[in-house]
Design brief:
single chain; alpha+beta; Jelly Rolls; Arc Repressor Mutant, subunit A; four-stranded antiparallel beta sheet; 9 helices; 11 strands; elongated
Length: 229
């Protein structure tokens, strides 16, 4: 399937406001890279030669502990989602692993070519700084979740965030339960136990991977979004 590079650049938060000439300049340096399901896109410590934009498919970004335990930091699954853009400015290697969850088509933006374009269109750099600040706030929230909240609270927050993202109280889980357990820094058995707890208390209904929020207020209290009563 052909990929329209310019249209996917337009979907990206960094490049959505660019005019046709700027988009054309970016399109000329972008390359389409395809990865089969479970293929490793890059590893932590690899030289960062550029960044990626989702055209099709889903990618997980994760870290490994010293004991080899995987922790999922982010799932990029929407056309226009950006992966590893911070490396453009940091001058460092890739800080995590990226792996295809499904068959993927990604736009690859080489660092050298992109820096040349930034000199010509500095407003792109200003937009990137704003997006990177938002990403930093997101990671700060992740650290707070892991250090201050128990598994039930982290799970409740994840369900609420998914509901907001999908704009519905009924939706499919965005990853396998084994992957969700890793993202929530727990084990599958503990995740299943907490899902059953929410189901038994009629806070959610759960059929296979489909969740329906039945009592949003209670879920918000468990997530720490409302004060406990």
């Amino acid at each position: 399937m052909e990929v329209d590079i310019a249209s996917h650049l337009k979907k990206n938060i960094l490049f959505g406001c660019l005019n046709s000439f700027q988009l054309s300049a970016l399109s000329r340096i972008a390359a389409i890279k395809r990865y089969p399901k479970e293929a490793l896109i890059f590893s932590e410590g690899d030289p960062a030669l550029g960044f990626y934009i989702i055209a099709q498919g889903r990618v997980k970004i994760y870290k490994l502990s010293a004991q080899g335990k995987e922790y999922i930091m982010h799932i990029a699954d929407r056309p226009g989602d950006t992966i590893a853009e911070v490396t453009v400015f940091s001058g460092e290697d890739y800080p995590a692993f990226a792996q295809a969850i499904t068959d993927c088509a990604l736009l690859f933006i080489p660092k050298s070519g992109f820096l040349s374009i930034l000199k010509e269109y500095p407003e792109i750099g200003m937009r990137m700084l704003g997006a990177l600040a938002a990403r930093q706030r997101k990671f700060a929230d992740i650290i707070e979740d892991l250090s201050l909240r128990d598994v039930l609270s982290r799970l409740s927050r994840h369900i609420l965030n998914l509901s907001e993202k999908k704009q519905s109280n009924t939706f499919e889980l965005d990853m396998r339960k084994s992957e969700l357990a890793l993202k929530l820094a727990t084990i599958p058995e503990t995740l299943s136990r907490n899902l059953r707890k929410l189901k038994t208390r009629k806070i959610i209904s759960l059929k296979e991977n489909k969740i329906t929020i039945l009592n949003k207020e209670t879920l918000q209290r468990l997530a720490g979004k409302l004060p406990l009563t």
